[in-house]
TrEMBL record:
Allantoicase domain segment(s): 24-181, 200-336
Name this protein carries in UniProt: Probable allantoicase
SUPFAM superfamilies in UniProt: Galactose-binding domain-like
Biological process, per Gene Ontology: allantoin catabolic process; purine nucleobase metabolic process
Keyword Hydrolase listed: yes
Lineage: Bacteria, Bacillati, Actinomycetota, Actinomycetes, Mycobacteriales
Gene it is expressed from: alc
Pathway involvement of the protein, from the record: Nitrogen metabolism; (S)-allantoin degradation; (S)-ureidoglycolate from allantoate (aminidohydrolase route): step 1/1
A GO molecular-function annotation: allantoicase activity
Organism this protein belongs to: Corynebacterium provencense
């Protein structure tokens, strides 16, 4: 494309907080009849094959909706992206690459701060005054990369979601949201992943491993697709599935990450996480709670500032999923006890 400026904006030096590579997810859209919404945050540059057609028409590497005729449905289309890494937004790119006869006449971008675990539908139903304008209604160009620097009060705020309004319909290839990550300080204690395979964690029990190995959940890095997580079969009885991980050594758990990335239609409905002590006792780490598809859940078990000793030491954790459903990754962050350190030293 010839629209890329000779001098690129300074905000490109910040990471793309919405990128799929950084755990971003498109959690809701009004429509995706021609091209799926997830394409908006792919880390790769959009491509185009003039000969490629599918059952729904021309295949586009972007998000494309049906023709929204006011006599039929009115209004305009929109998509909501949950930032994989919440933060202060420095700049936004709306890219209509390869959309020439089907790009929207106008678009706008708004930001939201919401740390509650809400579904895309619940986010979309929040009142309009919950959103902050980042990019006002702007005339669009086809096959063009639109750059917007975020300034003023909005630049100093922390956002967790952005909404792309496409007015009234059409196609947009990519949405980039560059900014400075703003972490929750409660999750930044001096901890290690006690469950990590590379640190010595191992799966000791699993109710079902029909589609993939359960030890994927403690593997290195983030899953790149559903096949790199743990997926069980569809459960047809009244029970539930679970996986148990023996920790690298006895430790005090501070917080847990449960990642359902790429499990869009087959994530668990609810999850519960239990700690198992050295003598076989059980400690509730995360009570049975709702889980969301394609989402990184973070559960604070114990704030380090609450006390020097922290929670009850455990040697293993069991994750129960209700009634079934897949997980991409499990991270159990905490500190080793002296007994845990002795165990690891003895192996060394």
């Amino acid at each position: 494309m010839s629209d890329i400026p000779t001098e690129l904006p300074d905000f490109l030096g910040w990471p793309d907080l919405a990128s799929r590579a950084n755990a971003g997810a498109v959690v809701w859209a009004t429509d995706e009849s021609f091209a799926e919404r997830e394409n908006l945050i792919r880390s790769s540059e959009p491509v185009f094959d003039p000969t490629e057609f599918g059952n729904k028409g021309k295949v586009y590497d972007g998000w494309e909706t049906r023709r929204r005729r006011h006599s039929e449905i009115g209004g305009h289309d929109a998509a909501i992206v949950r930032l994989g890494v919440p933060g202060q937004i420095r700049g936004i790119i709306v890219d209509t690459a390869w959309f020439t006869g089907n790009f929207p006449p106008q678009f706008a971008v708004s930001g939201l701060t919401c740390d509650e675990v809400l579904s895309g539908e619940e986010i979309a139903a929040l009142p309009e005054d919950s959103w902050t304008t980042l990019v006002p209604v702007t005339d669009a160009l086809g096959d063009h990369r639109h750059y917007f620097e975020i300034t003023g009060d909005a630049a100093g705020r922390r956002f967790t979601h952005v909404r792309l309004d496409m007015i009234p319909d059409g196609g947009i290839a990519r949405l980039r949201v560059h900014g400075q990550p703003v972490p929750d300080p409660r999750f930044l204690g001096g901890t290690v992943d006690l469950a990590a395979l590379e640190n010595g964690g191992r799966v000791t029990a699993c109710s079902n491993m029909f589609y993939s190995r359960p030890d994927h959940v403690i593997s290195l890095g983030r899953a790149r697709n559903m096949g790199e997580g743990w997926e069980n079969a569809r459960r047809r009885d009244d029970g539930n599935d679970s996986v148990t991980v023996e920790l690298a050594g006895e430790g005090r758990v501070r917080w847990i990450e449960l990642d359902t990335s790429y499990f869009v239609f087959n994530a668990p409905g609810d999850v519960k996480i239990t700690g198992i002590t050295g003598d076989g006792g059980e400690v509730e780490l995360v009570a049975k709670t709702r889980s969301l598809p394609d989402h990184r859940h973070r559960f604070l078990v114990s704030d380090p500032e609450e006390g020097s000793t922290g929670p009850t030491p455990v040697t293993a954790v069991r994750v129960d999923v209700y009634p079934d459903g897949g997980l991409s990754r499990l991270r159990v962050w905490g500190e080793l006890t002296e007994e845990g350190r002795r165990t690891i030293r003895s192996r060394w």
